[in-house]
Design brief:
Layout: H1 2-6, H2 13-23, E1 29-32, E2 36-42, E3 59-65, E4 72-77, H3 84-89, H4 105-111, E5 114-120, H5 137-155, E6 159-164, H6 166-177, E7 183-189, H7 198-215, E8 220-221, H8 225-234, E9 239-244, E10 247-253, H9 254-263, E11 283-286, E12 295-298, H10 303-311, E13 318-319, H11 320-331, E14 347-353, H12 362-369, E15 375-380, H13 387-390, H14 394-397
Parallel strand pairs: 4-5, 4-6, 6-7, 7-14, 14-15
Antiparallel strand pairs: 1-2, 2-3, 3-5, 8-13, 9-10, 11-12
Helix pairs in contact: 2-5, 5-6, 7-11, 8-9, 8-10
Length: 402
Amino acid sequence: MRERQHGDAAGGIGLLTRIERALGTGTAAYLPGDGWIRLTLPLDGDGDVHGGCGPAPVTVDVIADTARAPEGIAYLLPGGGLNFAAEFFTPGTPGTPGTPGGRNLAHALRRRGLLVVGVTPREDAAAAADVRAAWGLEAHRRDLARVVGALDSVMGLPYEYVGHSAGAALALDAASHDTSPRLRRVVALDTTGPYTGDLALRAADTRDAYATQLAQGFPVVDPGLAAVIAKAVADPDGVSPVPWPPDPARRFTHAGLAHFALIRTAALPGPANWIYTRGHSAGTYAFGATPAEDRFTLTRTPLETWHAATAALGSGLLPAALMRDLAAVWAGDDDTYRIAWDRITAEVVWINTELGRGDHPRGAELIRAGGNERVSFTVVPGLGHGDVVCSGTAASDVWSRF
């Protein structure tokens, strides 16, 4: 009966059963859609099996077309603190306010004939006490390689890595170690390689801040954005605990704080918020005479979409080791962590946003300097960091470029 409900062996349950067997562990869940089917499979989190990575599982989501066999595979790698569902699937699923049904990156790639495989890192399923000091960029790359190797052994299809933010850095790092002739392309959405000048020095300070946190026995970072957005939706006029910049004796409203955090991310305290030219989401924010009189609006991705996405998160946590390694990459500190830019031989499509990670092409330049001429770097005007995947116009603004 399940065979008839979910599709034929070429594009539906038969294909996903093969994938489930290839990955070999976990308890699978199937969700049928209109012309597609989704498999969600948490992989065994046994530390002995996964190089000491601990008890929390990596979660693999597969979106398959039920009408045709895939022509290739797109591995979708979410940004730091996010998961596949929050970033690439929920923002456009049917019933989500502000976005037409199915208008998300997962379905866009599926419609192009690709099998979509989302790889959600361990921290999404972890409690704060379970996050390990070893969960740096190398551990994330090792987990991804296990999934890719297992599926490649049974599928033998050409594939590409598509990552956003920290996921894009992971995609580039994975490509530098992946020698398979079936790896065709890396799509890096709004991320940064090494900075230059004063920003490289600032990145070194960020690296040191996370290294110190780890040394003091605190391996986890909680960005807290999901809770801020949830309060803005549930009680927009309520008073937050966060001081209001024009008069620190006063406090933002919940709605004001959420919009300020999304639009003016770079103005927030914290060791890594400076990496954004302005913020996560395009919009305007003007202070009023009182916090209740502030005026703000999101111009690309509505708050309802942000809420739907962040509500789909698991822990929302970030490993401090991952942030340390990313900051080392930004600083050009090869001793702490090195992406071998000269070993990336697949095509690279690097797309940044004007208001997010901005015009910093050094990583793309290093790939090109290593002899790979199939590298493009583009900055899309008017978009924030998250708009590259969540905006209602992302399909025409960004996805059409790859």
